[in-house]
Amino acid sequence: MLLSRNLVFRALSRKCGTHSYATAANAVNIVEVGPRDGLQNEKGVIPVSVKAELVTRLGRAGVKIIEAGSFVSPKWVPQMAGTADVLAQAERFPDVRYPVLVPNQKGLDAVTTLLAKHPASPPLTDEISIFTAATDAFTRANLNTTTAESLERLAPVAKAALDQGLRVRGYVSVVIACPYSGQVDYARVRDIAKALIDMGCYEVSLGDTVGMGTPTQVSEMLEEVKKSIPVEKLAGHPWITAFAPSTLPSAGLGGCPYSPGATGNVATEDVLYALQGSQYHVAGTAHGNGTIDLDKMVDIGWWISEQLGRESTSRAGRAIRARRLQEREREVKAKL
Ligand SMILES: CC(C)(COP(=O)([O-])OP(=O)([O-])OC[C@H]1O[C@@H](n2cnc3c(N)ncnc32)[C@H](O)[C@@H]1OP(=O)([O-])[O-])[C@@H](O)C(=O)NCCC(=O)NCCSC(=O)C[C@@](C)(O)CC(=O)[O-]
């Protein structure tokens, strides 16, 4: 699956966060963005039933935060059409959150309509993610406006969402380099992230959208952003090379359709695998042992990849599958 595009930095801060899912020291929050970021860039049409099943399977595997889709213009991102039906059809688990991406008031209105139509408890979603970018060129390509104008548009959307009891999370894209305008000014990243926090985002995910950042660049950018925002309110997406915690999709799928040259995401399975035996662990999840089930995530990664007509790019996913096949062959031979 598309693992984490955003690892949350609470583990690094060694403090509990302000969320209801506050984490202990060394705990990593994983925001699984497979159903949204992982699928939004696909060429073919993905049936709603497949998208809903993906959300269901992730919940069963113990993922605690699943970004289930987006309420953007279907003309801009056709793959995200039907997100309301995905939310309505997916089997939901009471301790799992299902945030959705919202670009404007129209997107929030669609969420409000959905919640009125399906008055479930807990609600189908209780969180929106709003997004902008560190450069005007990227914001123009992705949202058809400038960064400053996007922030102006998003402020009332965030306020309206908070007023109706929704949580609001923020994304800043291209925090290191922009595919259209090159190296990014980290002070600008800091100011934009701060603007999102000031409008009520409980956390801001910083995206190296094209995946060009080196660990040194990511550290420098973070040092700048930390001047205005405490680290426990930051998440990373998808620069796992530099930091432990993040927002990821399974099977390494995905990316922003308006980010030419992006090479896909770090797979959730790979991060789960890397965390094994490290000083970090996944924050408390649906499965009381505080872990996401790696084997189930590998299965989900292969399943969704098959649905999309490709192979999983997750290294851990491929290795674990190869090991399973070998074990099965050995068992068959032993029976002969
Ligand atoms: C923001 C807009 C809508 C502006 O697009 P626009 O064309 O400027 O908007 P508009 O207000 O002029 O409306 C144009 C048409 O879109 C419709 N429309 C307008 N809004 C909506 C809506 N919410 N839902 C459904 N329909 C909508 C609207 O009704 C109208 O339809 P028409 O009259 O032509 O039939 C467009 O640019 C858009 O949808 N952009 C989203 C692009 C996107 O989803 N990108 C991928 C997600 S971001 C990402 O992946 C990065 C991230 C978050 O992962 C972090 C990282 O990786 O760095």
UniProtKB/TrEMBL annotation:
GO terms for biological process: ketone body biosynthetic process; L-leucine catabolic process. It comes from the Eukaryota. Its EC number is 4.1.3.4. InterPro entries: Aldolase_TIM, HMGL, PYR_CT. One of its GO terms (molecular function) is metal ion binding. Keywords: Lyase, Metal-binding. Residues 28-298 form the Pyruvate carboxyltransferase domain. The keyword Transcription does not apply. Pathway: Metabolic intermediate metabolism; (S)-3-hydroxy-3-methylglutaryl-CoA degradation; acetoacetate from (S)-3-hydroxy-3-methylglutaryl-CoA: step 1/1. It holds the Pfam family HMGL-like. SUPFAM superfamilies: Aldolase. It catalyses: (3S)-3-hydroxy-3-methylglutaryl-CoA = acetoacetate + acetyl-CoA. Belongs to the HMG-CoA lyase family. This is hydroxymethylglutaryl-CoA lyase.
